[in-house]
Amino acid sequence: MAHAINIEELIRGRTVESERLEYKKGWNPQDVMHTICAFANDINNWGGGYVIIGVEEHKGQPVLPIAGLDPSSIDRIQGELIDVCKQIQPDYHPITQPYVIDGKHILVLYVPAGDVRPYSAPKGLGEKGMQNRFQYLRKGSRTVRASGDDIRRLISLAARVPFDDRIQRDASLQDLNLGLIRDFLQEIGSNLAEECLSMPFADLCRLMHIVKGPDEALIPVNAGLLLFHPNPHKFFDRAWIEVVLHKDENGTEFKEQIFKGPLQTQIRDTFRYINHMIITERIEKVDGHIGSDRYYNFPKKAVAEALSNAVYHKSYEMRSPIKVKIW
């Protein structure tokens, strides 16, 4: 079953922060077990992480071209992984999927944050190592043992489920829109964009971690509704973007535009508006040179990044809109 992410972009670290990625040239069961435990503990509430087996790492970056795994070893590794994960307590298993990238075989483990933190794993897989257990976590791009303060923090996190992962009891499975989900998967280049048409909708939502509960009573989580409901503000008061264009320095004259819809749509529509109404280009000819220099009053890339950060890093527990003020 494909992951809901573009794997080639993931490998190159373009879609996920480096702290959430672990590259392994080969199969090292003990190191992988500790990293899975660390991502499951998710002390920073990043949403877990990914372990990519078959890609060498150098100073935190993937070594390209991909080294790859022996294709005949994939089934064996997946079998051993099941046994290795049985050593993690409470019970935890990542989502695994083999891929072929540039003709090379790799194994990708998606390790979402666990629901029953803190998790622990034995120091080693040998008889002596199994006698001692530790909690593991991520510090930057490294997997380390948790200290006393870290353990207390993990215990406190266990009592509070992140807002994005909480179920929305006023919603049902029917509030999630398949068209929006597929558009999202196509946009990020996930193989799941095609597979989703031939699988039960409930299975798709489970795979994407946007629902929780038993089969007969699946309930969307907040993140799913923010991304895949046509009008998230139905569940999250004023979950939209307000762009205010001030026409004087005093702020007495202004024009306001409101952008609603799924979060990714809000970002796209807001940027399109700012690009069309606000961003201007100035072209200057340089004496003695062929061509010209181009300048913008606001750099487009910075504006797009600022919008994305504002939307995706906002706490939607706070019932207030995102406000973009322009003078």
Short description:
The protein is of the alpha+beta class and 327 residues long.
Please describe what this structure looks like:
- The chain has 327 residues and is of the alpha+beta class.
- The protein has 3 domains: 7-160, Methyltransferase, Cobalt-precorrin-4 Transmethylase, Domain 2, CATH 3.30.950; 165-229, no CATH class; 241-326, no CATH class.
- Helix content is 30%, strand content 22%.
- The protein contains 10 helices and 16 strands.
- The protein has helices spanning 7-11, 29-41, 74-85, 148-158, 178-188, 192-195, 201-207, 222-228, 263-277, 300-312; strands at residues 21-24, 49-53, 57-58, 61-62, 95-101, 104-111, 120-122, 133-139, 142-145, 211-212, 219-220, 241-246, 254-259, 281-285, 292-296, 322-326.
- The strands form 6 sheets. It has a 4-stranded mixed beta sheet.
- Strand 1 (21-24), helix 2 (29-41) and strand 2 form a beta-alpha-beta unit.
- Helix 2 crosses helix 3 (74-85) and helix 9 (263-277) runs antiparallel to helix 10 (300-312).
- The radius of gyration is 23 Å and the shape is globular.
- 28% of the residues are buried.
